[in-house]
Structure to design on (225 residues):
């Protein structure tokens, strides 16, 4: 248990559906991240939020829409996805985003399948 | 070519064996992380280091900044160590972003 909780753990959705992934942390961290892990590929950073403000968007398609209502919660809203978006989506949090010694804590991930 | 390369990609060992996983990187870094990912997908941070060596239980991580190389060692390996081990670096120029290796799949047989 890392203190970062993601729901749901598994999600199957059609290409015309709209769904949301949720991430929650009560570690008192200020920064939250979304990562994508596709099969046989390294993790890819998608978004970074610091104090609820988006600080990085790694050229992610607009069909992925993040939302950070407060420092403890992060959502990833999904709409009109493609089958190639099927992947493990991981949330992480850290105390801050500056400096070398900021350790990130990861959630269990949501396994997304787009059919 | 990835900026972070791990070897081997796959490793099978017998219980009790000493295991080494290697990570080489080609960029200037401020820190290096070793992460463990279990089959369910969740990731646990094992070590974060910027110099020298760290030890936690049966796990040891070392880093040589000059050679741009890090190793993760597992002593007296156990089947529960079976997981994917991921090396990630925080580049000097990338702020909070981590750059990940592809991971090493470790299987420890009883």
């Amino acid at each position: 248990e890392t203190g970062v909780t993601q729901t749901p753990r598994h999600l199957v959705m059609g290409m015309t559906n709209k769904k949301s992934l949720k991430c929650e942390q009560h570690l008192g961290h200020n920064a939250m991240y979304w990562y994508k892990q596709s099969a046989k590929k390294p993790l890819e950073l998608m978004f970074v939020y610091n104090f609820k403000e988006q600080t990085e968007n790694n050229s992610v398609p607009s069909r992925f829409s993040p939302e950070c209502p407060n420092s403890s919660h992060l959502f990833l809203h999904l709409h009109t996805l493609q089958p190639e978006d099927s992947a493990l989506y991981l949330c992480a949090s850290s105390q801050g985003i500056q400096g070398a010694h900021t350790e990130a804590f990861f959630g269990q991930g949501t396994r997304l399948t787009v059919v | 070519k990835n900026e972070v390369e791990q070897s081997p990609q796959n490793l099978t060992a017998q219980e009790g064996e000493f295991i080494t996983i290697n990570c080489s990187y080609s960029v200037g870094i401020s820190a290096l992380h070793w992460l463990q990912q279990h089959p369910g997908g969740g990731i646990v941070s094992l070590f974060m280091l910027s110099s020298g060596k760290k030890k936690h239980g049966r796990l040891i991580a070392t880093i040589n900044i000059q050679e741009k190389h890090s190793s993760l060692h597992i002593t007296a390996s156990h089947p529960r160590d079976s997981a994917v081990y991921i090396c990630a670096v925080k580049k000097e120029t990338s702020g909070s972003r981590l750059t990940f290796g592809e991971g090493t799949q470790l299987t420890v047989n009883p």
Notes: The radius of gyration of chain B is 13 Å. The mean pLDDT of chain B is 93. The first strand of chain B starts at residue 4 and ends at 7.
